[in-house]
Sequence to fold (402 residues):
Amino acid sequence: MIPLLTAALLAATSVTFSTVNSVATGDQDSPAIATNRNGQVAVVWKDDRDETDPADDAHSEIYLRLFKDGTPVYELKLSTGGTSGVDWKHITPDVGLDDKGNAVVVWADDPDGNGVFNIPYRVVSPTGAVLASGRANADVAGDQRVPRVAVDPDGTSGSASAVAFTVVWEDIQGSAYTVKAAGYTAATTKAYEVTASQSTGAHHRPDVAVSASGDATVVWEEDADGNAYDNVGLVRLARANGAVTLSRRSANSLGDGQQRRPAIAANYNGDFVVGWESDHTGTNGVWARSFTAAGVARHPDAEVSATAGAAAPTVGIDDQAGAVVGWTVSGADGWLRGINEDGTFTGRLGAQTLTGTTTGRQDQFQVAVSAWGEVPVAYTDDNDGNLFDQIILGVGATNSDW
Fold:
């Protein structure tokens, strides 16, 4: 276990905050964020602008907004409503962004209001044109939920324009819960759909990262032996056919208690970082571990959170393998902390809140990290206490002292 360090840490300065959603009525929730090496940031969220009850997500839509150097480029609604007279909904969006500025968005949708979901995707150009639409899951039986997407930063080899990406989701068939993955080598070219997790036990809440190789590294809540205790499952899948190229294993080395809500990010070279919730010390906190591109752990599990009640981790990593881990404290404040590839903290962002205000409730905190260590953040904000949220973007933080 890596101890918490307090010396020689950085503070985020000169961060600019702005509201992502252009329409403030109703309720905006569930942000996700992605960035690239060219100053572009994509934010996606669940928008329920005609809602009068913030606890109700019926008739919610999915919106995407792209920024360049902090300036909005476009805002786009990507979902398509649903059947009249039923409680249709579109929820839990995620976004990936390649270095050309192409965005891929996924979400869980229930357009007929029957209570079960499928996973649509949209590929969007740097100017906001929808290049492709599709459904990640081939089989519509059962229930598909909690999708995540990661985009190959340089696209498909040999193509100047092709967008390559991998989608993962929680697949529910009766009482069986597995994690599925679908890989695309172009906007409409599906290379594979496979079961990423073990087929026994129960598996939940996947996340995925893709490097320039195009291979996908997947993490999830793993309980293959069915003992009701989760570890963080880890596997890598080949871009061409979904074959396992890094055998299934645990990302965490300390296994007492529950290890849940994993998040993963990879850089161009394939180095990656995993963050997760753990209660193995008796208090819930956020932990992290960095790995080489070959899947070799660089350090033991490191406790990153410095406050009680830390939950819902989010991670990013730069091309020098410096990482940032974010989390939300008791559903009220967004925090982050930088971490070196060896699990130490010197020279990186110190543990701190990074929201425009701490008045009221700031929730669902999300981080991204560019190749250069730039750290944009997004979160929901209810500083006036009316229970209706807006989506806030913060840009200008960096995770290095060089």
Summary: The radius of gyration is 19 Å. Residues 1-7 have pLDDT under 50 and may be disordered. The chain has one domain: 16-398.
